[in-house]
Known about the structure:
With about 550 residues, the protein is α/β, with parallel strands linked by helices. The chain folds into 3 domains: about 5-260, Rossmann fold (3-Layer(aba) Sandwich), CATH 3.40.50.300; about 265-320, no CATH class; about 325-535, Nucleotidyltransferase, domain 5. The chain is built from 21 helices and 19 strands. It has helices at about 5-10, 15-25, 40-50, 70-80, 105-115, 135-150, 150-155, 205-210, 235-245, 270-280, 290-300, 300-315, 325-330, 375-385, 390-395, 410-420, 430-445, 455-470, 480-490, 510-525, 530-535, and strands at about 35-40, 80, 95, 125-130, 155-160, 165-170, 175-180, 190-195, 220-225, 255-260, 320, 340-345, 355-360, 365-375, 400, 425-430, 450, 490-495, 500. An 8-stranded mixed beta sheet has the order 5-6-7-4-8-9-3-10, with helices on both faces. Helix 11 packs antiparallel against helix 12 (about 300-315). The chain starts with a helix and ends in a 6-residue tail after the last helix.
Amino acid sequence: MQTEQQECLQAIPSSWLDLFRDHLPGYDPLQDADGYVFRADVADFYCAFFENYELIEGEHAGQRFKLEDWQRAIVGCMYGWIDPDTGLRRYREVFIYVPRKNGKTMLAAGLVLNGLFVDDEPGAQIYSAAAEREQAALVYRQAQGIIARNPTLAQQCKVYRTYKSIEVQSRNAIYKALSADADTKHGLGPHLTIVDELHVHKDDKLVEALQTASGSRRQPLLIHITTADYERPSICNTKHTYARMVADGTFKDASFLPVLYEASVDDDWTDPAVWAKCNPNINVSVREEFLKRECERAQNEPSYENSFKRLHLNIKTQQSVRWLPMNDWDQCGDQPVCEGPCFAGIDLSTTTDLSALVLYWPETHSIVPYFWIPEDNAKKREERDKVPYLTWAKQGLLTMTPGDVIDYTFIMQQCIEVMQTFDIKKFAYDPWNATQFAVTMQDEHGAPMYEYRQGFGQMNEPSKELERLIVAHDVKHGGNEILRWMAGNVAIKMNGEGYIRPHKKSSTERVDGIVAAIIAIGLAVTNSDVEEDFMPSVL
């Protein structure tokens, strides 16, 4: 004789079974259901409520929100599986792992409104949680916009724009957008929490505070909606690992719903079929033509390949990657054309390492480097680094300074000689270890010194410009052996916004010449407004 649960499972409409099979990748909610049953009528009710919402942005603005099949599978699964004895929901935590541009924010806003208007929870507290205030405001803005276009919902609400909150007085329910940099998250009792872009969260403090605060609720629900993180220790990667284990049955947790839209490292990332597999909203909120353009960019810009894989295919990538394609570098070996105004960037070592000065002529995209190393330390470093410093010095590619530590006075004198030879308009330095050098150069020798920090903000644009010039074979570096060695060493680091900069700690060997070149290019790129952005710090 069949049990009540078996009968209920067999009674699940085939349309819902098809949705679960086709749109919950690698996960079967029927497996290990652990006494829960699926109520299709409840799932249909929650899904139908989305159609009260009107899209507020993009080409579909003004249209009703029609759940796509993948969204319907998630919403129906979250709300349709219940305990037959208590009527409470099965799922308490959901991990939605989906690439950028797949309508995550709109889905999150709809879930917020479902929590406010549909759930039968006394005094419901609903929160959307993000790492930063700007990100936290996105879900709120969507939810507030939906309410503003729906008179039935609007008349039930009080909207507090200053506090990014919405109150439904008749239900004693409130929604608020929170960020990790808010003053406090204690004293909360969340019924529904949506964590937006978990990969951006620096730690687990906000998520943990909200999760532990939900203990007084009958059926609290914590939903993570995120794109892939870098390959590193993080709360996002911890949750992803757990979700993968639940999905493949390694770990049994009937209350955890894993939704994993991702490619594997073995997939062909240039294949449109792989794009479609990872992007469930393809040709709805993210167009295949857009992904095609982004993929072509990734193939032409080495630094963007990891961004494309992580943001659009949910493949975890290293934060620091080897950067410049040496085949392209070698095709840029024409002799520099050193005519007209140029810009200089210097990267000084601290004691015993290489120091570099690079001149850049923007009219001809020409690069000329100068290198220095302490003479008494050169042989020792050659044996340690397995690099021919002494040979390079004999060839005139490298100058050895007197003594066993770098001689700034010697380097300064050569910089002055270079200034007398070429028309240097701006001279950039990193203030971290060159401030006194810059003061003397400017005050005693009239050099136009400009502070240039090596953070993402100032290094991103010129780094991408150097990469563009190299890939286009539109730079002239004269085949300098030292600069080529450094170009092969350099790795870049990328932040969450896609900004890049050279990362010395991840690079295999010295990269000073490439850093100096980027600094010089940075001055040239921003020359039109350099007086505003690069005011001399030594005046």
